[in-house]
């Protein structure tokens, strides 16, 4: 076994070298068909991904299937078909699935098939051994209920088949009984040449979007390459709403009611912003918060009242009272906001109580009150006991108005925020630490900006097993959804009644629907409403469990488990067991968790995520790394261990599960090591957009974009503070700082530009950039007629915490003796290595140097995806 593994490594090692030399590898896996079929019936989306793959090699090999699905969805089916036999994944209770897996594999760890990637997607990955010249079909189904936000629904589909596919088809069919009011197709798959492959067909109640790119289009598009397509399609739409009572659908004993009136006057609101200004908010976060608050203040309506509270270890009220949003008051508030500075500890308890008090002291008839807490950390001063804080806040608010909690970044105790907001009829949202954090904050505010109704109660005489029927607020652009069963199926009509308060007066919406009217539901998915009901019920049960205790909690858990099993949903309580053709080879798919703290959250709360497009992000949940079984090549049954969610420190190109032809080219980075004659080097496959260097303290970041089949970077962007932006391409250099716009061409005589803390020096094909205390050199190279850029850092500033692909400067290693394969010891880990060569593009002369090639993960202690960005 050792030999087999070693041989494979050597073979792949040879491949690696040839790849760096740019020699094309013979394709030995053929994905000859890749279909994505998404059907949306009354907001309930069922998506089926089918990939058919042939092993074109004269020996058996591992073939991989990897797709990305929305976090909000539940996987409901997975099937592999090999040589006429089907292997279906079976959903079981989590513990039972784990046992089965453990029995199959004496080692205890679960080979997680699913992991969380970025803000809105999860990655599903598996592989199977396929005999010589045989074929395999993978089929994955997931289901989700599209949520209306800011007046629209969004269906997000990711496609990344890993190679150009002769028969690629994406079919989306949307059927909405009240008719579709608008439909738009966005996302990177709808740009450039690929847009020609998209066809949209609209009828009254149906819309079809098809995307059939030719093989040629899949290789020639801007973001495509030898790996084919890689991107998202985002279908955005809304439905007509002629009936103010909402839309009711009945099918096979189940109903769903969509309630979203818009013809209602807005209610003026009392909103208090409680802003964390503790030390941890320093830098970008506090700056973005200020920016967002300034925009939000500008958006307030004149009859709104507002309050501002900032807190660290002290609580500061801008004004003791809520003030009307007059021009004068807003002007003063903005001056206050501009002066918000980070300092001190975090007293959440005192701050929230001050906010509650502010609202309660000024009751205004016929208005809607909202508390918004923004924090990035744990309570560290004042009352720090989370249970006590929750009790205090709950008692103070007394169900009178909602508390929304926005958790900024990943240091925050998100479970605590979820509980506290749920207890006070609000939601918790995560604000991802990124360049668009201000927009995320503003986007959240926009969703709650226009309250139309308060105290909404929905009633369904003759309905049972109802999902949630009481809501504290209804905002314009959102939608209230209730589903349930109809107790007496023989009744002719079904009545809905909604009672709510609109600007202080009671309003009632009443409607009657004929139950026999099911003609709108096509027979092939007439079960959808039952599944929709189950989906919504399970989500709400899981939400509520956070708040329950004891027997009640057990009962609800049992109920949601029962439904998850009946409808074969992979939820936080269940797992899907995938048994493979090879004897005893078992994998388990779990719903990944994101907030790493605490016990039982949180994937489901991604429901309430502020995740607007663009979504694919590198900012992941803190992926805690604890590698205890590092030596994976000696594992007796190595195949599934490659899917281990923890970093395996394996060479990406050496995954036996990855068809080698897929990764044909990489950028190789050189990493000098103090006290060692040979540097380290590591590969990052292209194409990609990478975070190269970042210093949050001085708000400096440098990102680079690589194209496939090309060395280096074709564009590098450097950002400093909020106003300095430097975009370097192979053609020209452009710099903006809010006042100056500077354009510099490569290949010129000495050109210099110096302003506050920024120095740019360009001479021929070298550029020196200094921003604050960070200096980088960008070299423009030309190789085989192709221009590319390469960044170099000759001096690392002291006492600065740099991150990014080039951020490591303090790495060390010791060469260990003995074993056949050369091994390095790095940070107490044994790392297998190869003596390789690297072109040192940090110098014009591009000397070739010998280096120890190690996996990216071994150097960075993170995944490559942790360093990818969506925008330069
Ligand atoms: C998608 O599903 C529909 C209905 O089952 C079917 O008619 C259509 O051919 C499918 N499209 C693809 C690309 O599989
Ligand atoms: C596969 O083909 C190669 C060359 O065509 C040959 O050397 C090798 O023996 C074959 N392997 C098997 C298992 O038939
Ligand atoms: C609610 O949203 C709709 C559609 O966006 C808009 O036409 C309407 O004016 C809004 N209502 C209020 C009160 O802002
Ligand atoms: C639905 O409600 C009925 C009682 O009204 C109950 O007997 C039944 O078990 C419920 N079904 C589910 C799936 O919860
Ligand atoms: C609205 O209804 C509630 C409960 O039915 C009642 O207590 C309240 O007085 C009503 N308010 C108005 C303004 O009619
Ligand atoms: C850029 O910086 C490097 C290293 O500090 C220096 O050797 C080089 O002369 C500088 N180039 C220019 C054009 O100033
Ligand atoms: C860098 O990070 C470490 C640990 O996170 C911290 O102790 C140190 O103060 C930081 N240094 C600077 C200059 O920010
Ligand atoms: C490896 O062997 C050499 C010579 O035998 C010895 O000097 C060196 O200390 C050894 N290194 C390690 C890490 O054991």
UniProtKB/TrEMBL annotation:
MF terms (GO), sorted A to Z: serine-type endopeptidase inhibitor activity
Signal peptide: 1-22
SUPFAM superfamilies (UniProt xref): vWA-like (SSF53300)
Main location: secreted
Keyword Glycoprotein annotated: yes
Keyword Signal: yes
Keywords: Glycoprotein, Protease inhibitor, Secreted, Serine protease inhibitor, Signal
VWFA domain sequence ranges: 270-448
Cellular component terms per the entry's GO annotation: extracellular region
Family: Belongs to the ITIH family.
Protein name: Inter-alpha-trypsin inhibitor heavy chain H3-like
């Amino acid at each position: 076994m050792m030999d087999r593994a070693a041989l494979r490594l050597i073979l792949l090692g040879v491949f690696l070298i040839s790849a760096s030399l740019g020699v094309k590898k013979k394709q030995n896996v053929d994905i000859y068909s890749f279909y994505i079929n998404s059907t949306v019936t009354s907001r309930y989306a069922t998506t089926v991904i089918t990939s058919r793959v042939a092993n074109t090699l004269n020996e058996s090999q591992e073939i991989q299937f990897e797709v990305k699905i929305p976090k909000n969805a539940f996987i409901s089916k997975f099937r592999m078909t090999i040589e006429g036999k089907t292997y279906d994944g079976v959903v079981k209770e989590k513990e039972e699935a784990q046992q089965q897996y453990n029995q199959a594999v004496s080692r205890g760890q679960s080979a997680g098939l699913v992991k969380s990637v970025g803000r809105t997607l999860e990655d599903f990955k598996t592989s199977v051994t396929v005999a010589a010249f045989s074929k395999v079909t993978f089929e994955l189904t997931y289901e989700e209920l599209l949520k209306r936000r800011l007046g629209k629904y969004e269906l997000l589909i990711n496609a990344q088949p890993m190679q150009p596919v002769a028969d690629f088809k994406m079919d989306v069919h949307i059927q909405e009984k009240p008719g579709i009011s608008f439909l738009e197709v966005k996302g990177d798959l709808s740009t450039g040449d690929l847009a020609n492959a998209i066809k949209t067909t609209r009828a009254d109640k149906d819309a079809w979007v098809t995307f059939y790119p030719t093989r040629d289009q899949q290789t020639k598009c801007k973001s495509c390459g030898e790996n084919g397509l890689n991107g998202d399609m985002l279908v955005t739409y809304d439905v007509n709403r002629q009936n103010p009572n909402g839309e009711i659908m009945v099918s096979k004993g189940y109903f769903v009611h969509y309630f979203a009136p818009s013809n209602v006057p807005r209610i003026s609101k009392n909103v208090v912003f409680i802003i964390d200004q503790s030390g941890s908010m320093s830098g970008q976060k506090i700056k973005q918060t200020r920016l967002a608050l300034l925009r939000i203040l500008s958006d307030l309506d004149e009859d709104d009242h507002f309050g501002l509270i900032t807190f660290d270890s002290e609580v500061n009220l801008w004004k003791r009272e809520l003030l009307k949003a007059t021009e004068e008051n807003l002007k003063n508030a903005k001056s206050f906001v501009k002066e918000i500075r980070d300092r001190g500890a975090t007293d959440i308890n005192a701050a929230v109580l001050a906010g509650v008090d502010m609202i309660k002291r000024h009751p205004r008839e016929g208005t809607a009150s909202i508390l918004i807490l923004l924090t990035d950390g744990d309570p560290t001063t004042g009352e720090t006991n989370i249970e006590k804080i929750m009790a205090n806040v709950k008692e103070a608010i007394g169900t009178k108005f909602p508390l929304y909690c926005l958790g900024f970044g990943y240091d925050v105790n998100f479970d605590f925020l979820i509980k506290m907001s749920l207890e006070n009829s609000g939601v918790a949202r995560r604000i991802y630490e990124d360049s668009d954090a201000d927009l995320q904050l503003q986007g959240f505010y926009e969703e709650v900006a226009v309250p139309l109704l308060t105290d909404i109660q929905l009633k369904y005489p003759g309905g049972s097993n109802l999902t949630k029927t009481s809501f504290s607020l209804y905002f314009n652009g959102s939608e209230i959804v209730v589903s349930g069963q109809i107790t007496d199926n023989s009744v002719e009509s079904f009545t809905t009644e909604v009672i709510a308060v609109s600007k202080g007066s009671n309003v009632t919406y009443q409607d009657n629907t004929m139950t026999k009217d099911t003609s709108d539901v096509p027979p092939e998915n007439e079960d959808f409403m039952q599944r929709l009901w189950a989906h919504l019920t399970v989500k709400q049960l899981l939400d509520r469990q956070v708040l329950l205790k004891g027997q009640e909690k057990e009962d609800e858990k049992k109920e949601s488990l029962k439904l998850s099993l009946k409808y074969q949903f992979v939820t936080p309580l269940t797992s899907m067991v995938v048994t493979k053709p090879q004897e005893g080879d078992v994998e388990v798919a779990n719903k990944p968790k994101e907030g790493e703290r605490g016990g039982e959250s949180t994937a489901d709360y991604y429901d309430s995520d502020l995740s607007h497009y663009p979504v694919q992000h590198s900012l992941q949940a803190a992926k805690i790394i604890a590698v205890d079984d590092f030596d994976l090549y000696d594992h007796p049954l190595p195949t599934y261990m490659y899917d281990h969610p923890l970093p395996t420190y394996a060479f990406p190109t050496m995954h036996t599960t990855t068809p080698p032809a897929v990764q044909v080219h990489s950028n190789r980075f050189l990493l000098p090591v103090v006290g060692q004659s040979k540097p380290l080097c590591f590969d990052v496959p292209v194409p990609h957009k990478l975070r190269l260097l970042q210093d949050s303290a001085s708000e400096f970041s440098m990102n680079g974009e690589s194209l496939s089949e090309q060395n280096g970077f074709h564009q590098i962007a450097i950002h400093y503070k909020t106003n300095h932006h430097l975009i370097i391409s192979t053609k020209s250099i452009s710099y903006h700082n809010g006042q100056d716009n500077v354009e510099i061409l490569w290949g010129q005589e000495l050109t210099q530009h110096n302003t506050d803390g920024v120095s740019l020096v360009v001479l021929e094909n070298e550029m020196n950039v200094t921003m604050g205390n960070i200096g980088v050199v960008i070299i423009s190279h030309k190789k085989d007629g192709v221009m590319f850029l390469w960044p170099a850092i000759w001096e690392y500033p002291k006492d600065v915490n740099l991150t990014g692909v080039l951020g490591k400067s303090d790495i060390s290693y010791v060469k260990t003796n003995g074993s056949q394969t050369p091994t390095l010891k790095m940070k107490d880990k044994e790392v297998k290595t190869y003596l390789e060569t690297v072109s040192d593009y940090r110098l014009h002369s591009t000397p070739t140097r010998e280096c120890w090639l190690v996996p990216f993960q071994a150097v960075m202690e993170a995944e490559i995806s942790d360093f990818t960005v969506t925008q330069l």
